[in-house]
Input
Amino acid sequence: MEQSFPLLSQSAEDEVDHAYVGLEKLPKRAWSSASTALHYILPTISFLHSALPRFLQIGGLKSRKEKHHSTAWLDALRGYAACVVVKFHLFNFSQREIFHQPILHAFEAGRGSVEVFFVISGYVLSVRVLKMIRNQQAAPLLNGLASATFRRFLRLYVPTAFATLLVALALQVGLVHIDKLWKPTLYEQLADWMSDTIYASDPFHDVLGWWINQGYRTKYAYQLWTIPLEFRGSMALFLFLLGSCKLTTRGRMVLSWIVIVCCYRWQAHYVACFLAGMCIADVSISFPPEQPEGWLQLPQHQMDTNAALHGRREKWIGLARKGGLIFMFIMGLFFLSVPADTGTNGPWPFQYVSMLTPSYYGGDVKEYFWLSIGAILLVLSLEYSPTLQVPLRWSFSLYLGEISFGIYAIHILCNWILYEPYLKPWQADSLGDSIWADWLVASIMYFVVFVAADYFTRVDTQIVTLGRWLQNRLFVQWE
Output
């Protein structure tokens, strides 16, 4: 009689069962521990990554490129202009003769950049309103002007107050050493800061349109002397848009240039820059840069039926247009490089510029006549030249545009904390005054300023959000 035997004994089955239990349960425990660890590690890594300045994040410069609007190059131009202001305030390149030459001086002197700020602001603040005027959208036009007017004070003065608060705190903790600003206690420092903030936020205070040593501004950040001009220029622009909204496009353009000429005569060149920026936006709407002939294209009813530009004629007109824009761009840089004395004792041909300066522009305001004209020509030439816009559409350029106000507002604090007490003496003692030493120190300072501006911009973004929130809470919807 055959006897059957199991292939596996009981002990073997037990071993299989134990092995099965081990293979089933141990990885689950290990995976559970790993999941718990990852649950804490990944958010920490993500937080640390987001805490880095955007230009140091992986893909940080490209992450928002697709969200930029068609005029983002204007913000990029503002960013580079802010970098010129940083160089003007921090470094001693101006001691080198090469930076006194025509055109090159535009990249060294910061006052011309201020005029560029005003022209850009005039363009950006008006372009949307101008489109509403042309489309005869009365309700959106009223809402747009009311919103822009309501939020403009907050947009300019709240970030200014934050920037000066940082200086006050830096004075108290010993990062900045300026005897005339320092107070013995935190309470006294904050009280002095608050008093200065109220004083510097007066929209009715008498202001000049140019820099003077004892001019109206906050004492905690002297570069912010332009903020009252930004506010007044904005209000003048909004008032002009409101007063001219019922005019024809041609009538509005003619009136705007009459007012611009009057502003130059009254030495209110910053208002002229705002209105000129508006005019550039208005012309751009009438003759879009995307069209083959841009602003040189005649209206359709003025074109001869057989005047379609083809072949050689079209080629020569295109070349002439590009050449004209390049010439305008160069002339813009030339006028932006006019020195403080308008070249009376400067290199050729600045002497002739001095001779052409109107007699009613003298003293400290003399250079601003030409700087403002240079800013207008620069923005107009860039508006109609996609080729010249290319560097302004690079990812890093667009990033500079996003942090431009931060660069402008915070760079003096970086100067007081790092450059004056440490880098400047270090360069003098260890590096000397060579051009390479200048560039090394400048690279370090620009890196620090960009980092500080990145964090400042994050706060500034919340201030913009606050303005929108207040508007939504306080504005009443009309029927």
User: Anything to note?
Assistant: Residues 90 and 415 are 7 Å apart (CA to CA). Residues 76-294+336-474 form one domain.
